[in-house]
Amino acid sequence: MSLFLWVFTWWPSSALSLLLSVVGRQTGLEVVQATVCSRLDLEALKYTYAMVFALEEINRNSTLLPGVKLGYRILDSCSRYPWSLQGGELVPLLICAASSTSIIISRILGPLSVPVISYLASCPCLSDRTKFPNFFRTIPSDIYQARAMAQLAIRFNWTWMGAVVANTDYGQLAIQVFQEEIQGKGVCLEFIETVNRENIMSDARRAALKIKASTATVILIFCWYTDVKKVLLELAKINVTDRQFLASEAWSTSDDLLQDLAISKVASGVLGVAIRSSTIPGFENYLRSLHPSHRPDDEFFREFWQKEFGSCSGTESLEGVQHPFTDTSQLRVAHNVYLAVYAAAHALHSLLSCPNRDSPPGNNSSTCSSPKHIKPGELLQRLNKVNVSTPQGEMFHFQGADIPAKYDLVNWQNTPEGSLKLVLIGHVDGFDLHLNESAIQWSTGSNQVPVSVCSESCPPGTRKANRKGEPLCCFDCIPCAEGEINNRTDSLRCERCPSEFWSNSEQTACVPRQLDFLAFNETLGITLTTAAVSGAAVTTAVFVVFILYHKTPMVRANNSELSFLLLLSLKLCFLCSLVFIGRPSVWSCRFQQAAFGISFVLCVSCLLVKTLVVLAVFRSARPGAETLMKWFGPGQQRGSVCLFTFVQVIICAIWLSLSPPEPRRDLGFQGSKVTLECSMASVVGFFLVLGYIGLLACTCLLLAFLARKLPDNFNEAKLITFSMLIFCAVWVAFVPAYFSSPGKYVVAVEIFAILASSYGLLICIFAPKCFIILLRPEKNTKKNVMAR
């Protein structure tokens, strides 16, 4: 009356198949060595006794499987898959180790509904219940450790990494999940090197040279610890000690690597994901109490004892001995074995528990079996619903084939002896990463996180531009254009500022655009103001000269009253330009155009009347034209000037009353400044003002041109002709310049036209007269003025 439960562990150097039997009140031990292995693996041996300890603990438990005792059979399969089913008996439950072994055994036993529980098979493929409906495990799927490692890369901003993976399902599936997890997260793999167990020396050398040539400083390794050791030794040979390694659980806690001084400089600072550690109370004392004399049939333990003590005299003891075999400070895989045994025991307990065993079978509240008639399919159903509670109060259950994912995060740190020690720096609970960053010692020897990027992050004020033909993690940083900003790191594009804002000098923020107008305190404003004031001052000086010499022939002969009025209008023309300078306001916008239009019409009207007077004087000298001068007397002259000017006053009044210029911000000119200008609400009014001035100026130019050859020195027609030519040329050039100038330079162009035409009139008409009055007084005589 026996029921067998196999426990099969796979290890590279040696493997142990542990066969559990459920017997009525009997406990037995049988050791069968199927073949001779090269050496004994202490870790696998520790897993074996974790199973034995769990069995004995269950057998002492009066509430779990009462009346039933568990036994076991230890089989050595030496890492050979065909030997994993040795024993020649069909068993209702098998506990096994590695993924490859689990896949083979699950497929063989699946049609028979024999449950398989693994404590080390982490292949994600085994989570597929359609292919492996009879499989369970007490170790998380590699999907979760790959996700945790991707989270670490993202958290530390390692965007440029290398990877070395085993050319097995373990390595290939893990790197595939890792790549899926980092997709779209800004992390790239520079290279993926695969290593094969059959060619490990050459592959390790190739991987080491690839790591040395790489620009990535963080290297991800999904390999078995023996393969990793070869790679690290090759790196030590070529003195590569500046790489930060990210370790998978297959080698992150390997004592063989931690104690090897040859790789301590290369492996310092390793950050790894590890199978979670836990405690099994009483297990250390149990291990130390083991002795060959108590286990005469245990060939494995006898081999271990001879290796450590050299003999079996009976006086040797593990008590007080510091040895990896008795070290239970961080039980990882052994704890998974412990849980697997308890999961099997609880499933059996559920199946064997019959609340109403004495009642008829049809009245049983639950289906149950006896130890003599356990069906594997029934046990499989119980395992799917099992809820394990260990003596330490630890609870876990299966979610399909898996248990809730939990990992430790470990760090390899230097010790004074030169070796490395394992330091717990955090843990992973499902998708949550809990990490004490301050406790990490990095490969650089400092607490500064290593930088591993293809391109440095693009700071605010720039945007990322991907390099053609290179991974997304390799890019250039392009400064944002003017008027565009970016206040984030590694942004793909810059944002344009709103119309009334502009980018600051760092291109990181939009700031209000500065108001720009032609101010008195800027260079251009000062220059134009100086020119206007100087023109007004010169005009005043000429006015004073004409007053002082008003009785001289030169002043009297040139119609002194109109000359004084012309000087007054010229002074107004110079001064009206000052209204255009300064911050535009409602008042200044309306006044400046009216002042300009009226002042220039007054000026041109005076010249037009002077020209008409010249023509009338010479026409009156002809016989029969004496009455012509009656129409051009002083009163008529003043009236004509007032009439011409009044027409302009009417035009300005209508324009300013219907659609006056108003201050407006011109956003059309892109720049850090916004122009504050006087907007012409009605262009028609402005062109009517200019057109009327142009009409008078052209009429004056035509008449002066006709009178330019009239005799006598006092003839002003020549001077008026030159002045009007300059006047018209200036204002003809003004129109295209006005409409093509940007911002405040529109105002500057109009002021320049006002000043240029005013200076032209002042110089052409009054400079010759002042020259004679002041410097050639001998020519300021009636005889000289009247000479032909």
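Second entry:
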Amino acid sequence: MGRRGSGSGIPRQSAGNTHYGPVNLQTGDHSVQNNYFSTTPRSPLDVAADTLADAVQKQWEDEAGFRRLLEPAPLPVRWRVTERKVAGPPAGATAVGTRARFAPLPGLDPLTGEHLRDGGDLKGLHDVYGGVASGRLLLVGPPAAGKTTAAVLLLLEALRYRARANPTDREHIPVPVLLSLNGWDPARERADEWAAGQLARKYTSFRSRKGHDLARTLLQKGRVALFLDGLDEVTGRLRAAMVSALTSAPCRLVLLSRSLEARLTAKKARLSGALALELQEVCPRDAAAYLLHSRRASSSSAWQKLTRHLQDRPGSAVAEVLSRPLWITLVLDVYGDDSPVDELLDTARFPRPRDIEHHLLDHVVTAAYTPRDGYPDRRPRHSPEIAERTLRHLAARLAEEGTHELCWWHIPTWAAPRPRAILLAALVGPTFGALSGLTFSYAWGPVWGMLLGLLTAIGGGFVAGGLHMRFSERQPLPSAGWRDVFTPFSLTVGAGIWTVSACALWYGYQLRGDPMPFWLCALLTFVWGFAATMVSGSGFGIVKGTLLGFGSGPSFAALRKSDRAAVVDTRSIGPRDVWRHHIGLRLLLGLTAGSTFMLWQIPVTAHALGWRDGILIGLSTGCWTILIPCLVRNLAVATALAAVQLSAKEGTPVRLLSFLEDARRRNLLRAVGPVYQFRHSRLQEHLTRQRAHLPKA
């Protein structure tokens, strides 16, 4: 605080009092003016909330600019209360007084039925979000209705409203955060715990342990509002579990879903007190204004002709097409300022709305993979030609299989397995043969060692190649993460077997009069505990048959189907996460299985033949135990090798899984649990027809 005189030459004075000011006191000529300023420190929650608001605003303003949602005005958003049976009656969400779960945001009125009667626009949507007493909002609509677009625009409107508020009111206005439901297991994590983890991963200010706790506190105190996208990308049973868990979330919620999936979910579980709003088609006048304003000031005659047509003939084919945000933004992507956009009005070429949509779909992939000025960090890794060729191939494959689901673990069946089997045999056989030959050399001499090592290499390669050839047929997905392998039941069984085995071995040696240290007994019997853990869980499929290359019957977990729910029914996890699990965790489990076997094999063999032979024999058999599950029987490895084959034959990207994830980020694909789908079935059908009409090489 400083005190400053009104005239020159007056020295500055300071005061030690603290006021919520400034407060000025001045009397007489040449008197001293005292300025008092507040020095009350801001709370850590206020600082964290403002920091988060700045980061979220920067993130989504950049995303909205890339999606052409703000140039120069936001894309129109229209809504009304839905008549679909996806939530309870609106009266349950508009309760006021003591029944209200959330007070209206400062400056907004409590929501009443009067506000909902005629629907509204983006500003009205924010009023609903901030005034609904239940704090629960459900946005639904058909495919391409612009649900994510509406959520992004609502989020930015909420951030601007918060920024305009005074500091006292700002404490009561939550920071909206848009998250995908991917990765949440509602059976293991509360909504606020999961959301706190997501904030810690996405925003640097929450990445420490203290930051994670701060994020959880913000959520529990209602200082963050969750905008949750992707409910329709989750499988049926899990959707109901998520909706049930979200009912008790301590913060405001905005949940997005396609209408069909929302209706199916509501049959099993409903978001308590939620107000369900359905997004409406964009009216021709709004579409015309947005398209015209999105061009430069002196729009070409073609754009002016199109916009006049939309206003004068609202029932025309082009007006029907441009009633959905998807097609509006696609028109902006396809046609530049001076492009002949008025060709869409040619009724001879485009007599029906479907004809216009097909024409735009011809350019959708090119538009998604064309670099945009001002966004160097979003420059596509693949050219439009490669992207379109790859997506056409994928669409044709799915059409041949009669499905809309792209399961990456089925990709190995799209390429001949023999080249992969030969490659893996060439890797596994010599490695196993070299270690075996070294063992035989110490036992019977170098000549026999080389001969037997060569035979072992040939036999090992033949068995390894034969095992991989089984991937010529579709395989089920064995697991999607460590939770599927190390279940509570399997860990309990493994720990019990290990304890009993170690105690029995120690006691047996005690009875023989040849005592063995308990730590050595525990080390020798660890393999039995680990094996029991793997056999009693889905990890059995990772290590079965690794000694001789042949299976040994079903695992114990197969007899307990109630404890082995499908992956997609236990949690929401994306395809790339599942693939990384098989590349990483399965490799780790294979190494653990081989190392565990060596820990048992080496001491046992050394006790009979000596440490040198024990180590060599243990290394050779352990090597085989590691290589089979890590390389030969790993679906992720088979998929990566098949992608290389497809690249050589079809011209698709070598890193096919990375391409699929990139296409998902560009809104061409979506993920439903561990599988990919084309975001719009019309796009899949269109790409399939395109490939069918291409000339055969």
